Amino acid sequence: MRKDMFTASLAVTLLLGGCYTGTKQGIGTATGGALGGLVGSQIGGGSGKLAATAAGAIAGALIGSSVGQSMDVLDRLKAAQALESNQTGYATSWQNPDSRARYTMTPTRTYETANGPCRDFTTQVNMDGRAETVYGTACRQPDGTWKAAN
């Protein structure tokens, strides 16, 4: 469950965070909390559903806050460039000069949908001595930006 929440939180923070005018940490916290609650609601059942939803929201907010705090415009730009320009299987790596977080993003599959191109990707994140591997999907929007797929 933690990896799914982390993945969803990172993908949304990474690709959509630029649309929000709040802080990076606020973006990550809100996104992580919402996605964590969604994941928790899918796992819990019966009387445990509310507890699973709450636990998922709390865990997602904590994870999202950590990821969102370290990501900024540079990180989102680098990720979008990798999705737009990299051949499948070719990685782009960067280190944020302010947060010192390191990212390696690799598009792993490219395919066409009725709405345009989409790409699966893997991102390795090393932040505060913790390494995570994140899997996600993003689709190009009509304006050329990349958006996390549902």
Verbal overview:
- The protein is α+β, with helices and mostly antiparallel strands.
- The chain folds into 2 domains: 2-70, no CATH class; 73-148.
- 47% of the residues lie in helices and 28% in strands.
- A hairpin with a 2-residue loop joins β3 (116-127) and β4.
- α1 (2-16) packs across α3 (48-70).
- The longest helix is centred in the middle third of the chain and has 23 residues, at 48-70.
Topology, element by element:
Layout: H1 2-16, H2 24-43, H3 48-70, H4 73-85, E1 92-95, E2 102-113, E3 116-127, E4 130-140, E5 146-148
Antiparallel strand pairs: 1-2, 2-3, 3-4, 4-5
Helix pairs in contact: 1-2, 1-3, 1-4, 2-3
Explain briefly what this protein structure is.
The protein contains 4 helices and 5 strands; from the N terminus they run ααααβββββ. With 150 residues, the chain is an alpha+beta fold.
Can you give keywords for this protein?
single chain, 150 residues, alpha+beta, 2 domains, 5-stranded antiparallel sheet, 5 strands, 47% helix, globular, disordered N terminus
